[in-house]
Amino acid sequence: MTPEPKAGGNAGMDSDYLEIRGLSVSFDGFKAVTDVDLTVLQGDLRFLIGPNGAGKTTLIDAITGLVPATGSAQKAGTELLGKKVHQIARLGIGRTFQTASVFEQLTVLQNLDIAAGAGRSAWSLLRTRKSVLPSIEEALETTGLTALRDKPAGVLAHGQKQWLEIGMLLVQNASVLLLDEPVAGMSAEEREETGNLLRRIGSDRVVVVVEHDMDFMRSFATSVTVLAGGKVLSEGSVEQVQADPKVQEVYLGTANLAATDPATKRESADA
Ligand SMILES: Nc1ncnc2c1ncn2[C@@H]1O[C@H](COP(=O)(O)OP(=O)(O)O)[C@@H](O)[C@H]1O
Ligand SMILES: [Mg+2]
């Protein structure tokens, strides 16, 4: 089980963590997320899985202020619920969406520059930067996009766009990253590279990855939380979660804990 941060406890002074307690989201009386508890410590690569409609995206939306929620969601003791989207982003919570949202006409560097400018004055944003900020150099390096920095984002491969989005969160100094299906539509090679990227950035950040791809989860998750019907169904190591009869039941009919989306099902059927 994931250790709980205790008072004066095991998370350490400079450690970050995300602590969600009793979080619920209703849409016109329909409970999309019900009483979710979730603790993710810095250095953990937590996978959040569950069938379509389980409430995974809604949970991320609630943490990032896009939908109203009740309960509590704290980053290292600071309450996020009730704050505005931009305030939450400034507290270091970064998220990606299921579809990549980079500025296609702008170069990789310009995309990162804009991301780095978030929260700065209009003046500093408009001023031409003669040199590349060290944080941007670092993000280019980390995401493996250095050689592509002057290419328009629109010509990047699908995987590279997702890496650019992650790079944009890095230059914003996000220390909690919530990634919604980052490897959807990626080639096997891109998945492998993305997994390695997540390991690199995850060692000193809190990373939650929503994922459908069970092979990807098995390769890279350090811990797993399973959502179903808006509730936490199971939590633990990959092995523990896979062995849980409750988890097997919600994935019944899908080969070997394969996800509900047909593309993944096909892949795991011959695994
Ligand atoms: N804005 C909304 N209004 C009404 N219902 C919604 C809204 N967003 C999501 N839902 C519903 O909430 C449930 C959870 O959706 P979602 O969080 O997108 O699931 P997942 O990401 O796990 O596939 C689904 O039944 C979905 O139809
Ligand atoms: Mg979703």
TrEMBL record:
For the keyword Nucleotide-binding, the answer is yes
Quick one: a GO cellular component term? Answer: plasma membrane
For this protein, the record's InterPro entries field holds: ABC_AA/LPS_Transport (IPR051120), ABC_transporter-like_ATP-bd (IPR003439), ABC_transptr_urea_ATP-bd_UrtD (IPR017781), BCA_ABC_TP_C (IPR032823), P-loop_NTPase (IPR027417)
**Keyword Transport (UniProt):** yes
List the GO molecular function terms: ATP binding; ATP hydrolysis activity
Keywords from UniProt, A to Z, are:
ATP-binding, Nucleotide-binding, Transport
SUPFAM superfamilies according to UniProt = P-loop containing nucleoside triphosphate hydrolases
Q: Where is the ABC transporter domain?
A: 18-254
Q: Which Gene3D superfamilies match?
A: P-loop containing nucleotide triphosphate hydrolases
The protein's name: Urea ABC transporter ATP-binding protein
Q: Which organism is it from?
A: Nocardia alba
